[in-house]
Amino acid sequence: LKRAPQRRNPATMTDILSIKDLSAKRENLVFMAKSAEVAERYEDMCKIMKLLVQWEGTSLSSDERNLLSVAYKNVIGMRRASCRTLKEYKNSEWLDQYKGLVETELQSICKEILGLLTDTLIPDVRNEIKNKQKQEVPKKELEDLQEALVFYLKMTGDYHRYLAEIFTNDKENVKMAQETYKDALAIAEENLIPTHPIRLGLALNFSVCYYEILKDQSKACELAKSAFDAAISKLDSIDEASYKDSTLIMQLLRDNLTLWTTTDNNEDDGAEEGDA
């Protein structure tokens, strides 16, 4: 009798964290995160970025924050799409179990990134802002820190929203999404120009939260219109580096406004989101 081939543990075979000396230097992690992005290995990218966030004594640069966002956005995006697809199928015992597995994966990913944000990234940047405010530092340094804080708060609101859209009976995530978005918007309006892509992306996603999660069409339209109008009035202030991102999000804001104000709008039509 032929003996069945011995199966190897796939986690051991493909675990990027097993690479020798990967975490010996911070630059190694950044390089490998970018490599994982190019290879579209987003689960690996998340593992690397988690190590980078936990690296002591340093905060993430703007490019590193974007790597963090890209990693988790792609991993969670697949699960969100799966949940929406499976929701369309007729219920059965097996399908219910499968939905449960996908939802558990989504919940685990959301909790992981929310832990990094609320336990490490947000407290660290808040403390850094407090320390800088006590010193005479260039205005640009404080602006960069406020930008980072808005970025992290927006991400926090996003992932609470993702949980709220799947686990509809969990009102805590609805509350946390709304409160975090509000906090982020107040800081953004005080510290970021109306055409800043992070401020625009925040307004876009908060308006989606109002429409899809809080079921408040009036507030959703009011926020989207306010952000769009404020950006239009300062269109000449968009710098070349952020022009493409800013104008794209402005277009998404306008598309959503059109969608939401159409009288025969289908309630199931999905609004556009931004991840600036």
How would you sum up this structure in a few lines?
This protein has 276 residues and is an all-alpha fold. It contains ten helices and no strands.
Would you write up a description of this structure?
The protein has 276 residues and is an all-alpha fold. The protein contains ten helices and no strands. Helix 2 packs antiparallel against helix 3, helix 7 (171-191) packs antiparallel against helix 8 (197-213) and helix 8 runs antiparallel to helix 9. The longest helix is centred in the middle third of the chain and has 42 residues, at 93-134. The radius of gyration is 21 Å and the shape is globular.
Question: What are the defining features of this structure?
Answer:
single chain; mainly alpha; 276 residues; disordered N terminus
Poorly predicted runs of 5 or more residues: 1-13
Radius of gyration: 21 Å
Structural class: mainly alpha
Helix content: over 70%
Shape, principal axes of CA atoms: globular
Cα end-to-end separation: 59 Å
- Mean pLDDT, to the nearest integer, reads 88
Largest sheet: none
Number of strands: 0
Write the layout of secondary structure elements.
Elements: H1 10-14, H2 26-38, H3 42-53, H4 62-87, H5 93-134, H6 139-166, H7 171-191, H8 197-213, H9 217-233, H10 243-261
Helix pairs in contact: 2-3, 2-4, 3-4, 4-5, 4-6, 5-6, 6-7, 6-8, 7-8, 8-9, 8-10, 9-10
